[in-house]
Design brief:
Layout lengths: L1 H8 L19 E2 L13 E7 L4 H15 L5 E7 L7 H12 L3 H13 L8 H10 L4 H8 L2 H16 L7 E4 L3 E3 L1 H4 L2 H18 L1
Parallel strand pairs: 2-3
Antiparallel strand pairs: 1-5, 2-4, 4-5
Helix pairs in contact: 3-4, 3-6, 3-7, 5-6
Length: about 210
């Protein structure tokens, strides 16, 4: 007690250490050139690049969903199935096929769980179709979507985005076509979302 009174008398206070400022090339990378975005004026686009077979993407999913629910309407989260090599293309096609039949939102988490909780491998198309039927999806509609021109186009676009954003791994999060960050860069998932929030704030301030 006497020590505390002495410190107060001397005008000393205890303060928490200041939060570390984000550092380019350490906590995030700046894209050059910046990539085009597909959101309305005044909005900020956030892209999550993922792969269904990636355990880090699986563990990020609950925190990402919780984070997304807290965002204002001018922050638009979009998911992109990354394609770092040809073996990843099948699950990107699965993602867009489910989107085409209106089951993407319902089964996105279930597809992660199939790989990482149930130990299934849904990469082969026929096994993916079999699994989807158990989830209430029409097999023919899904199979038709899977091989459709529209899904072909989206898979090629995902592959191009993976290259354009210069990704070397997933999960990765891109902000407004200008910045890319990841838990690997920031040192953990809590730090990742802090970095994303700061980068979003930077973009909203510019707007």
């Amino acid at each position: 007690m006497k020590l505390m009174l002495l410190l107060l008398a001397l005008g000393l206070t205890f303060t928490a250490p200041a939060a570390r400022a984000l550092e380019a090339d350490k906590d995030y990378v700046v894209l050059s050139p910046a990539q085009p975005v597909s959101v309305k004026k005044g909005q900020v686009e956030v892209l999550e690049f993922f792969w269904y077979r990636c355990p880090h993407c699986f563990h990020l999913e609950p925190d990402l969903n919780a984070w997304a629910k807290k965002q204002p309407k001018n922050v638009v989260l979009k998911r992109v199935p990354a394609i770092l090599n040809e073996s990843w293309a099948a699950m990107a096609r699965a993602y867009y096929a489910l989107e085409a039949v209106g089951m993407n939102n319902k089964l996105h988490e279930a597809l992660f769980n199939a790989f990482h909780v149930q130990g299934m491998d849904l990469t082969p198309p026929q096994i993916f179709f079999d699994w989807a039927v158990t989830q209430g999806v029409d097999r023919k509609k899904l199979a038709d979507a899977y091989s459709s021109f529209s899904v072909d186009t989206k898979v090629m676009r995902a592959q191009q985005l993976t290259r354009d954003y210069k990704l070397t791994g997933v999960p990765a999060i891109a902000i407004n076509g200008k910045f890319v960050t990841s838990a690997y860069m920031t040192g953990g998932q809590p730090e990742l979302f802090k970095a994303v929030d700061e980068l979003i704030a930077m973009e909203l301030k510019r707007k």
